[in-house]
Amino acid sequence: MIVPGGSGGMNAWDELAELFADDAGAVAAVPRLARHWELAQGSPEAGRLTAVEGAAAVRRQYAESLELLRLAEGFLAEGHAAVRYADIGSGGGWPGLVVACARPGWEVHLVEPLQKRARFLDTAARELGCGNVTVHAARAEEAGRGPLRETCALVTARAVAELRVVLEYTAPLAAVGGIIALPKGSRLEDELAAAGAAMAALGCELAGVAPMRPAVSETVRVAVFRKAAPCPAAYPRRPGVPERRPLGS
Ligand SMILES: C[S@@+](CC[C@H](N)C(=O)[O-])C[C@H]1O[C@@H](n2cnc3c(N)ncnc32)[C@H](O)[C@@H]1O
């Protein structure tokens, strides 16, 4: 468990490095992640990026992002040294910019429609020396019809929408055979039960549900989908439609 820093003992960033000690990329990224946190807190252009503070932020934002990466990689095909990866609704950069820091060899695309957040992501990526990041100031429904369509080995989205909606945001970007990894809380079973029609329409299969290690989160599990078939041209629907009329509703 990550505990608050303070006088003596390990601070939360040291604890983060220890939690991911077997991931050299994550350990090497920790100083840049700490710098990202400073930038996020001090960014007037990005507005209020996260409600959590201090050591809790290190666990909620950074450990959960790295854990999502760890679990998703378990589902990626062998030989994924260079991966095109997209994060939808990146907000202040969780998990997309965290992954970019931990996997500098990956091509990372952050999709975030709010201009001030997209600007923050772009500035932060440059400040952190993440030359592998492209920020798309666009909605998922737009990005899913652009050059990224069906090209990504991995797509994530954290805290963006309910499952059947976020599948329509993410599935069009995943290559056939690619992985969509979505962290979810206690409503996962209900959301999965409601997502059957969306999965079938979008060419996705449930590959597994992977709980985070308790030291990272007692509650978050990652629903992992494999893109089994090409996404029909009808998806994603026009901006706003997936949320207003979720598939299967
Ligand atoms: C609650 S925030 C989560 C941000 C970040 N993923 C995190 O976990 O801290 C949701 C984000 O999704 C973005 N978002 C909402 N609808 C979207 C859409 N249709 N396409 C892409 N991003 C969207 C919002 O602008 C916002 O930044």
Layout of helices and strands:
Blueprint: H1 12-19, H2 24-41, H3 54-73, E1 84-88, H4 96-102, E2 107-111, H5 115-127, E3 133-136, H6 140-143, E4 152-157, H7 163-170, E5 174-184, H8 188-194, H9 196-202, E6 204-211, E7 221-227, H10 241-244
Parallel strand pairs: 1-2, 1-4, 2-3, 4-5
Antiparallel strand pairs: 5-7, 6-7
Helix pairs in contact: 1-2, 1-3, 2-4, 3-4, 7-9
This protein binds S-adenosylmethionine.
Task: Please outline what is shown here.
The chain has 249 residues and is α/β, with parallel strands linked by helices.
Model description:
With 249 residues, the protein is of the alpha/beta class. The protein is built from ten helices and seven strands. The chain has a seven-stranded mixed sheet with strand order 3-2-1-4-5-7-6, with helices on both faces. The model is unreliable at 1-9 (pLDDT under 50). The chain binds S-adenosylmethionine. The site of S-adenosylmethionine has 19 residues, from helix 6.
How would you describe this structure in keywords?
globular, binds S-adenosylmethionine, alpha/beta, 10 helices, Rossmann fold, disordered N terminus
Helix content: 25-40%
CATH architecture: 3-Layer(aba) Sandwich
Number of DSSP-assigned strands: 7
Number of helices: 10
CATH fold annotation: Rossmann fold
Mean pLDDT: 92
Shape: globular
Number of domains: 1
* Ligand kinds: S-adenosylmethionine
Query: Gyration radius, to the nearest Å?
Result: 17 Å
Q: Which stretches are poorly predicted, pLDDT < 50 over at least 5 residues? A: 1-9
Order of helices and strands: HHHEHEHEHEHEHHEEH
